[in-house]
């Protein structure tokens, strides 16, 4: 392979951790493309057929996050091989992988493998807590070796990937973080919001229609001054309890 790319949408870092485990197992230098960067010129980015890309996104309600799909569609794959990865908070990933497959293939990539992995839930942190953990990392490293073996044998076939076409209906953002009294208007949340939903001059002002509930603003605030409504958060935890109570394992399609 010529170059290894990490093309990642990871507002709170869990998806990035999974992508890093896979690419580190192959060694060598990795080129990063950050899909959360709303200022990036993705149309200027192009790979070629000798390149390998790990393309990783979180699952939002069983779907690819809309801005991630839109930005991916602007990158020119030019036949580069792709390992697609969806990361979820131990509930379910539903149609995320198959939607990601369709998105990257339309952008000109050749999907050679797919991975579903678990990371700490970005809203309900009790679920998938501290994952990917050591067991996950061992699994992911083993997946990376199997993918490398497939490519070394010249096999670039696309595996059967689970999911439905038509995809499940996308939900609306339900939890919009708000600024607390600890906010000093430093502006970091506004600068790092993947969709520009936070007013730069007044971070207490949020465009609720633009917000995707990614929790980036909560995770990056140096003063811990952004929070979601406690009653709604308790409701989310209660709703997820049954679905998330059993530990899910990482999965490979190759």
TrEMBL record:
Report the domain of life of the source organism: Bacteria
Q: Which InterPro entries match?
A: 4Fe4S_Fe-S-bd, 4Fe4S_Fe_S_CS, Fe-S_Ferredoxin, Flavodoxin/NO_synth, Flavoprotein-like_sf
Keywords attached to this Swiss-Prot or TrEMBL record, sorted alphabetically, are:
4Fe-4S, Electron transport, Iron, Iron-sulfur, Metal-binding, Repeat, Transport
Q: Which residue numbers delimit the Flavodoxin-like domain?
A: 4-148
**Where in this chain does the record put each 4Fe-4S ferredoxin-type domain?**
174-201, 202-231
One GO molecular-function entry: metal ion binding
What protein is this chain from? 4Fe-4S binding protein
Name its species: Candidatus Tidjanibacter faecipullorum
